[in-house]
Structures are given as structure tokens and as C-alpha cells.
Amino acid sequence: MTGQYVLGLEGFTGDAKPFSFGGKTHKDVAGFDIKKLLIGSEGCLAVISKITLKLIPMPTHQESVCVSFESLEMATDCLTNIARQRSWPSAAEFIDTRCLDAVEKNLNKRFDFNTGNYVLLIRFESDTKAGLAMQIQALSKQLNSYSQVSMFQGNEADYWQARHAISEALKAQYTYKMSEDITVPPASIFEFLNFLRECQAQSPCVFLGFGHLGDGNIHVNLLASELSESDWENEKEKWVPQFFETCKALGGTLSGEHGIGLTKKAYMKEFFSNSEIHIMKGIKKVFDPNAILNPSKVI
User: Fold this and answer.
1) Exposure of 106 by Cβ count < 10 A (0-12 exposed, 13-18 middle, 19+ buried)?
2) Which of 3, 84, 11 is nearest to 40 (CA)?
3) Is residue 70 a contact partner of residue 117, using CB atoms and an 8 Å limit?
4) What is the pTM of this model?
5) CA atoms of 263 and 269, how far apart (whole Å)
6) Residue whose C-alpha is closest to residue 140's, from 152, 127, 128
7) Ramachandran region of residue 296, left (φ > 0), alpha (ψ -120 to 50) or beta?
8) In degrees rounded to 5, what are phi and psi of residue 168?
9) What is the pLDDT of residue 133?
10) What total of structural domains would you count in the chain?
11) Considering the chain, what is the average pLDDT of its residues?
12) What is the CATH number of the domain that holds 31?
């Protein structure tokens, strides 16, 4: 997580009072951890003027592999088993191959790893070639327990080009696109994706989930083309609350990356009690008594 590399913050509160929290030390438990409170506060608490970051060396060796599955159950089970390994990969992406179909159409390019129904894109890193080979060998051995699975190596640039092009490709293919960013516990990934599969059977819309499923972060996409604008609005009104309801039931959170801003503000009360929201508003008032920093957002 980006925030884990932030060691210190300096800046000003909404009433122009300077502050400095954290610094160059790697361990600091003096007072409350205000630094972590400010990280991800969406500009609602302070103006940051200086950030002290922790830097780490680039890995000496890295390699990405794609693994295709016919079954959602097998793909998510493999992802869960990878998480239990001693060497956790630096990236683990889940892609519904309907996303890859859209990318191929949009880029006018064919990807040989676009097979099956679901693809895992996994990147391994190591300081030695032997360590990298050991991680990939462990994955290959694990795949022997699944049927109708294929592993692809050697086209790292294509793998990540396809992954990064998904959102734009879906936008180009469908008239309407709604994307939500939720996170569920890794053990609940299959349940949420299966929920999307069940929704698909009940709606004229297309339901796609993809993203950084190594940490349970799912980009939920609701898509449609053959609908009137009013029908599309009705479908959004029907399904988006169900996305969040299911996420909450599985122990998930309202946002994993994109924050709350304005669009998710109405759902905060579904995930937090009145007393919890009261605490957040109290913190906001301390840092920004005149409510001039990103007013009306988050809470």
C-alpha cells in the first residue's frame, strides 16, 4: 500500500496552523498516529506541504505470468492458495476474459493468454534468479491440482498492457458504464464474484469484476448498451446498493482505493454507526474548523 511508504508529513490545518507528524525514523509510537489519519483523508483535513517517503531498492529480478482457468471456483481457490505461500507475489490481478475480449477489440490486437473464462496475472520478484525460479516453480506445482488450466510466460509487456487497458476498452464497447471500487476479505472473493454472476442472470446489464484481488480489491463494473437512458438509471438504482450491501455482509469496506468523495457519501451510514460518523466529523472540525478543505466531501 502506498501509505506504508510514508514516514512523515508536514503541512497546515484548515485554519493555517502548521504541523509535523512522523519523520525519518522507521519506528515512532510517541503520541497518536496522526500521520496515518491524514493519509487517505482525501484533502479534507489538511494541506500537505512535505512528505518523507521510505525508498526500497528495485528487485533485481522479476517476471509476470498469466494463468487461465475455465472455472471461477478454481481461479479464486488458486488465488487464495497463493496467498498462503511463503513468497507472496508483488501483484496478483484477477481478470474476467470478457474484459480481455473488449481490450482485443479496442486495441485491434490478439493476446494468446486470452483463453478460458478467467485469468490470473501474477508478478513475482526476487533478488536472485534462483529465488524467482523457485516462486514460479511453486505456482506451476500448485496448478497441477486444477483441471483445464494453462500458464503463460514471456510476454510481460502484453500482460500489463492488457490489464491497464481494460477500463478504457469497456468504456469504448458499452454505451453505459458504472464502476465501483470495493474491498472484501480475500477469503470472500469467490462469494462476491459469484454474487455478480447471479446478478448477471437477473438483469439485461453486464456485470464484471476484476482488479487487485490479491488484496481483495474488486473493481465492480455495471455495463449496458441496449438500454434507454431511463432504463439504465433504473438498473443502476437497483444494483449499486446491492453491491455495497453484499460487500458489507461479507465483512468488506466501501472503498479500497478511490475514496468516498461525493458519490459514495450516501452509503457511509450503511458501513459506519452514527457514533463513528460523529467521531469523524469531530476530527474534521479540529483540523478544519471553517470547513474550507474539500467541503461536503467524505462525511
Assistant:
1) middle
2) 3
3) yes
4) 0.88
5) 13
6) 152
7) left
8) -65, -35
9) 93
10) 3
11) 92
12) 3.30.465.10
